């Protein structure tokens, strides 16, 4: 299986999730294609600090302009393990759910679905409207995995960073690339 992964970061709160996914994929030696929305650029800076955007870009092998729908990752002929959108805004989820390939992030996600590759969406919103739930159902029926970033409280995390790291690792594990990254449940 390819160790090349697309990471999309959209503008929902939870930018640290995208940063953690990028770092963990880098640590695994995966080749990372990165697509960041303009709203995500702002959210990364506001939630993670002034250097966060540069840091996440440093983890990537290739940074794609979200307006470039002709990028390599917009084609099904490019071998990939799959794609993670972390976090996934409800706007991005709705666009993917309805096949609106209106930017590279949503186009690349649509390509994963048509090629029957893994697409993991860390859907970030609360509470949820009926539109959100219907879009989640629709994209799940198409083959995506909707993974709201819910903490694994049973692991008794001692910090927000521990929660973010576990959620990001769990998302990576859902791509099925090999050795599990997330801390597993064990009986007490």
UniProtKB/TrEMBL annotation:
InterPro entries: Flavin_trans-like, Flavoprotein, UbiX-like
Record domain Flavoprotein: where: 3-173
EC number: 2.5.1.129
Keyword Flavoprotein: yes
Assigned keywords, A-Z: Flavoprotein, FMN, Prenyltransferase, Transferase
Sites where the protein binds dimethylallyl phosphate: 154, 170
Catalyzed reactions per annotation: dimethylallyl phosphate + FMNH2 = prenylated FMNH2 + phosphate
Function: Flavin prenyltransferase that catalyzes the synthesis of the prenylated FMN cofactor (prenyl-FMN) for 4-hydroxy-3-polyprenylbenzoic acid decarboxylase UbiD. The prenyltransferase is metal-independent and links a dimethylallyl moiety from dimethylallyl monophosphate (DMAP) to the flavin N5 and C6 atoms of FMN.
Protein name: Flavin prenyltransferase UbiX
